[in-house]
Structure formats: structure tokens, C-alpha cells
Amino acid sequence: MPTHQSILKDTFGYDTFRPLQREIIENVLARRDSLAIMPTGGGKSLCYQIPALLFDGLTVVVSPLIALMKDQVEQMRAAGVPALFLNSSLSPEAYQENMDYVRRGQVKLLYVAPETLLTPRILSLLSALKVDCLTIDEAHCISEWGHDFRPEYRQLADVRRRYPEAVCLALTATATPRVRADITRSLGLNLSNEFVASFNRDNLYIEVAPKRDPDIQLGRFLERFKDQSGIVYCFSRRQVDDVSEYLERRGYAVRPYHAGLDDDTRRRNQEAYIRDDVQIMVATIAFGMGINKPNVRFIVHYDLPKSIEGYYQEIGRAGRDGLPAHCLLLYSYGDVAKLKYFIDQKEGDERKAAVQQLDAIVRYAEDERVCRRKPLLAYFGEKFNAEKCDNCDNCNAEAPVLEDITIPAQKFLSCVVRTGERFGAGHVTDVLLGSKNERVLRLEHDKLSTYGIGRELTQKQWMHLARQLSQMGYLNQDGEFRTLSLTETARNVLKIRARIFGQLQEVEERAKKKDNKKELEYNHALFALLRAKRKELADADGVPPYVIFSDRTLVEMAAYFPQSREALLGISGVGQVKLAQFGDEFLDVIKPYCKKHKIAEKARETASAKKEKPAKKADSEIGMRTTLVAEAYNAGESLKSLMDRQHVTVGTIIDHLTKYALAGNRLRNGEDFQSLTSTSPDDQQAAFAAFEELGAEYLKPVFDKLGGRINYDELKILRLCYLAR
Ligand code: ADP
Ligand code: ZN
What we know:
single chain, 725 residues, alpha/beta, Arc Repressor Mutant, subunit A, binds adenosine-5'-diphosphate
């Protein structure tokens, strides 16, 4: 007899349930109505897909997004689950055909749009069948208080009454308490069966960086994500066009997405992105809803989002497959002013709400001390209990070197007082710098004792100091002009002349300890081959690549090198049907590769040993110095700076990095190496092909293969280029 546990492994290929999945599934199987609230990527689908396979009768899934239905059904079918959908996108013939399958009881899972479910045709079809489970996906659509109300959803209460024997499962990723209550009441659910998962997505690395030269920053960031999918969010259509053109010029496969494009272009661009035909989508916030793509590896906010809620929703589109993903927000005060300009066009309560939302995200972005997860989760009413998450920039920053800033801090605070605590940091700075601008003169602030006493610092340094004083709790910032006033603490500090420590120099990029440490180490060359195979199979079947296998599955294949069908079955995401359908195709890639490179299969720890250990060699094996150099390099340090700091030649640095990469570690892909070689592009290609064929451990075979026309010094550089690809 199959159980939910056995189906998890046999059909879906997973070892363990994600948080609350087991509880929800068991509750549904016990025929208790349930409401499940889980973040995007939490694994909601499994909560009804597994019971559907255990119930005798039919599971009906109501979903508002037609595009997603097709996607879900394709994924179900690839796993061997008899699933179908009925909606307006089908031709009359296909519709009839699908109805016939359902009537004959050959379907376990039926996806329908709410308006379809209410047609007499479907109601009569279903009345002749046993419906065991009624699943309402995106259940927040039922509430007028949600952001996505759909009137058709209101009538689901009616449908619910028609199938009193069916257990009802409502699912959503967004629900304020008010919406929650609305769902429960409208569907007549029993309140005791509410499951609320944590909204913390611990695989997302969250970073906010000062926006200086955004194009260059973006370019540098993307070097780390060669061939990996991601989204760049911009504020305006024009910005989207500019950024996507810029990336295109730099050779990226990229498409724009915004409301100014016609439907057809938008649809085509989205499809190309989903199918991994293009790597990057540059979009306004309009992009991402109703897209299931699990392998989004990065999200960049090129401009400041309007609210924390929107921001969190957008970064939530990354890393649904549970693998690490990087979320970068580029922040500048200039963006705040831009958003304010738009807010000023609004009126009344709407304007007030918008100001508050902007304030919250500005406070979030400017905070350099507290773990990013704290304010984000607090916004959703959840407390993040740990002191640090170790997966955000603030937790990972090395403690900054602090200096005594007592004198400038006293000057700044007194100037705030002298100007009457009625101005923002900009004006206070103008006064300190002795500016003769119109406002300073009109207010006669050039007569104050603090006028012109701060010429030893730049305007930027004063602004940075002001931010620190706010974060330290010495200054309050209020209202839409962000007026500064002193806190009680500040008054005391001034009185007792306490010393204050901080930073005068704004650091270019904060030193990082190390990011994404949770990642499983894997062979990137093999991964690339597996990905190409997946794309080939997907295109042949006309489905997105992730329907075949997720990135997670390919990563595991490239980390454990399974050599047999049994071993393949141990890989996460490989169930019986997928094994039968695609197993050999992938083994035909893995086995020859391993043979050529003399790689043996590695044991994979499964369910019992929950946490995977990275296959990385212990630091001691490759040497402390090597690890330090490589990690500094990976964290963004340039070759030049490494040479200067370590007092060594570039050859030594190359040796360290090579050793590190050959031990199976990932190296950042910078353009640094390529600039070191004087070989022709043709010779480079020949050398890469030789490394691909002969492996990169030894240079002699490659030297010989190329007839000795590239010397060893050059080969060392090219090998590093090859390893860092
Ligand atoms: P949601 O609908 O909550 O956004 P999905 O149901 O689409 O999330 O699941 C997100 C991803 O996680 C999918 O690729 C899914 O296959 C995968 N997944 C779900 N449950 C598990 C599990 N127990 N173990 C591993 N992967 C899982
Ligand atoms: Zn953190």
C-alpha cells in the first residue's frame, strides 16, 4: 500500500517533507478541511498532489492562472501523475477529449478555472463522479481585502456546498489576518485547521548596496551568474529598455518586460525566459506573477521598490527550488526623491499610506547593523528569533573598523539643535559646510555659530555620519521631509561629552566573510553538459526545462556522479517515472564524463542524515593560504590587490586559485584572467577543448596535444580561465 511518505520518494523523488507539508497532507487525508499559508516556493502543490494519489476519487484544483495550470499539469505528467486541465485556452475538441478522460475516471487531478467550474457542463460532469478533494489555490482571491480579488472566487462557497463529502484545502502565499478570516468564513472551514508556515526563505542571500554606478555594479554582479537565470527589476519602462539594451550590448541573452510592450511580445519574452532561451529578464514589477520558474538564481532591484511588501514578493521569486539565490538591492537617496515625486501626485489617505511604505523601505535599506531578515519578517508579523541569519550582508559583514568620531558628531548634533530641529540632513550639512545657497541665506543660518565649522569633511561624509547617528539612536527622522531631531540619548551624550565611535569614510564595498555557504559543491563542467541534455529533451517535448528535472536534481547529479539507475533514484527529484523516462539519457552523459575524468560515484546521504555535507575538501587539504586567497578573490578582491596584499607575484596567485578550483571549489568568473594571456582567441579555444577532453589536473598532456605551441606559463593562465568558466 502506498503511503504519503512512499509517494514523496517514488513519485516525486524527494527524501523529506518541507516544513508543514506532512501535517497538512495528514490533515487532508483525515478529511479535515484545511487552510495552508506558505511563502512562495514553500511547496504548497505537494500538499494536494500527494493526497490526490491516495484518494479513490477525483481531486479538483481551482486556480485563477491559466498559464500556471498548463505548467503544473506538464510537471505532474512528467512525474507520471494522471492530471489534466479544463479552461478556455483549450480547443473545443481538446476540451471534449479531456472531459471524456475525466468521465472515465482516468484522471486523478483536474485543474480548472473558477468560472469553468461553475458552468453547467462541468457541474454535471462532476455530479456523476466522486470528488474527494476540492483544492482552492490562491485562496486570497476570495477576499475583497486581498490585493487580488476575483469575483468568480466568491461563488466557490456554492461549489463547496455541492460536494459536502469532499475535503477542502485552501492554499495561499499572502494573507493578512483579515484575508485569512475571510477565506475561512467564505468557505466554511473549521478554524482549528489553519497552518501558517514561516515566511523566512533561508536560501535567499539578501544584500543592499549603495547605488553608485549601477550599470557597472550590475555588470560586475552578473559576472558571478554566468548562464544562470535572474530578473532585474527597474522602476520605469524607460529604465527597463535602457538596462536591457545595455546588457544586450555586453553580450547577455536578455529581454525586456513591461506594460508598454504589446501582449504578444510580452508573452514571447516570458516564454523565452521560462524555457531558458534567455538568461535575464529586465522588468517592471508587472513581471513574475503567475510564473513558476524554480531556478531563478538572482534578483536585482536596480531601483528602490515602493514598499517592503512588494520587495519581499519580488525577491520571493528567486530560489523556489531551495538552492541558494542572491537578492541585491541598489539603494540611493536619489531614488527616494524620485518616488516622493510620484507620491506627491496622490492625495489623502492614499498618499499617507504611500509615504509610510516608503519610509519603511528606506529605513530597511539604510540599516547596516541589524540582520535583514528581522525587519522583513517583522513586517509580516513574524519574529525572527536568531540574532543572525548568516545569509545577509549585515550578518556577513566583517565588523567595521571604528574610529573616534566624537568631534564631528558633536558638531552635527549641535547644528541640528541650532537650526531648530526642523531640517533634514542635507540642510544641516549645507550649514556645516558654510554653503551660501539661497535657503541658508534666507533663513539666516549663515549667522549661526555652527555655520562653516565642518569644512574638514565632505558633503558625502556628513551625510554618511548623519545616517550612522540615526542608526545609533541619536537622531530621529520624521515626516516626509525626514526632519532631524535629537533623541534623549543624544542630549545626554552631548551633556556628558561621551565619546562616539563610527566611520567617517563610507566603505566602497563592505568586507564580506563569505556568502552562500550552504551550497553543495558540484562539478560545473558536468552540470553544463547535463543542462544541455535537459534543454534538448525539453525542447523535443515542447515543455520548460524544469518540467524534466529541476536545477537541484542536476546539481546533485554533478555532485554525486551516479553511475546506475539505482544510484540515480537516490538523487533528489528523481522518481520512478522520471527514472524510466529520462534516466538513461542522463546516465549516458554522466558515465562517459566520469570515465574520462576518472571520477568515481560518491555516496549521497539521504533522509536519515538530513543535512548534506558539501563535497568540498577540508581546508587543511588545500592549505589555509590557498583557501584565504581564493575566498578573498571570490568575495570580489582583484588580482592586483591580492598580489599587493600578499607580496607575491601573479603566478603565485594563479597557483593558489588553480589549486582551489581543482579541489572542486567554485571560482568567481572575473574577466581578470583573460587579460593576462597574450594567446589568440583560436589558441584559447583549442586549449579549452583540450582541457575539456583531457582534464585540467595535468598540463603536460594538454601541452603535447597542442603540439607545444602554447608555453606552460600561458597554459597555466588558460587553465584558470577554463576552471573559472
Ligand atoms: P509554492 O506553490 O508554494 O510556491 P511549489 O509547490 O511550486 O511551491 O514548490 C516549489 C518547488 O519546491 C518545486 O520545484 C517543488 O517540486 C519543490 N518541492 C516541494 N516540496 C519539496 C520537498 N519536500 N522536497 C524537495 N523539493 C520540494
Ligand atoms: Zn542576517
